[in-house]
Design brief:
The protein has one domain (5-27, 49-270). By secondary structure, the chain is mostly helical. Strand 1 and strand 2 form a beta hairpin. It has a two-stranded antiparallel sheet. The protein has ten helices and two strands; from the N terminus they run H-H-H-H-H-H-E-E-H-H-H-H.
């Protein structure tokens, strides 16, 4: 039986999550990053592919397309995301937010021309950021080990399992015919990467150790998202990876922290970065 590309990616994600969950026997001594050696190798691999393939493509895309078109592309895919953001808000018991997300989809899909124009934000319906990894976190599931996945970048064991569900539920990743699906996924990923180009220089200037900077920013941001921007203060500095590496007041949030840093062909065609900039 022929295995589809999304199915292969899901299998890889599950395997990496299992690696993270079982990583206690191969600890680096860092409680929030027990497989740091593996992660640094994968980080270097991802950075190399980003520099060689994805970033140049994103720069070309950014240079060629006018801003209104890029904004429309961002809005279109953001509108699709809102549907499952609403599902996750509902699963987390945040019913008003879920109805607001559904309202965004209804408004932007109709008067917003399939989401190309974000009328919902102008109408006062807030854009949320939820996924299955955050839902598991709200249900009390701990991070597990921090892990850098080839192509997908920074994750935790919990968020990797959430990623499998995100991809499984993604209308774009599961669209047929496959040619249309692949073009849409490639467009979404390149557009997301182009939106994050301005952050590159900030990160390069701020980070003495880019790997540690990205790891801590990712864990901090995920913790803040799970707690809707109001995480409880940790009692100990080394409280471990259950809810992130530090308090909400510490560190510098990184706008690029959730970007899968690379996406080589063909894997970029099924990558779900969750890092789209909001365009209004």
């Amino acid at each position: 039986m022929k295995t589809t590309l999304p199915a292969r990616i899901k299998t890889v994600a599950v395997a990496v999550a299992a690696t993270g969950l079982l990583a206690g026997c191969a600890t680096s001594g860092n409680p929030k990053d027990p497989i740091e050696g593996f992660n640094r190798a994968m980080f270097a691999f991802n950075e190399g592919l980003d520099a060689a393939i994805v970033k140049p493509v994103a720069k070309g895309y950014d240079a060629v397309l006018p801003s209104p078109i890029k904004t429309g592309v961002t809005n279109f895919f953001s509108n699709i995301d809102d549907l499952f953001i609403g599902v996750n808000n509902l699963l987390q018991g945040k019913v008003p937010e879920a109805f607001s997300d559904l309202g965004r989809v209804m408004i932007n899909t109709t008067v917003g021309l399939l989401g190309v124009i974000d009328f919902a934000s102008d109408a006062g319906l807030e854009k949320h950021d939820e996924d299955f990894g955050q839902t598991f976190g709200r249900w009390g599931v701990g991070n597990g080990a921090y892990v850098v996945i080839p192509v997908f970048g920074s994750r935790t064991a919990r968020d990797t399992v959430g990623l499998v569900l995100d991809v499984a539920a993604d209308p774009v990743a599961n669209h047929r015919p496959t040619r249309t699906r692949d073009l849409a996924l490639a467009l979404r990923f390149v557009n997301d990467r182009a939106n994050l180009l301005p952050a590159d220089k900030v990160i390069e200037e701020a980070a003495l150790d880019k790997y540690s900077y990205m790891r801590d920013a990712y864990l901090q941001r995920r913790r803040n998202l799970i707690h809707d921007g109001n995480p409880p203060r940790e009692i100990e500095a080394d409280a471990g990876p259950a809810d992130g590496p530090q308090t909400a007041e510490a560190g510098v949030p990184d706008p690029r922290a959730e970007l899968a840093p690379v996406a080589p062909v063909p894997a970029l065609l099924v990558a779900r970065t969750q890092a789209s900039s909001e365009a209004k």
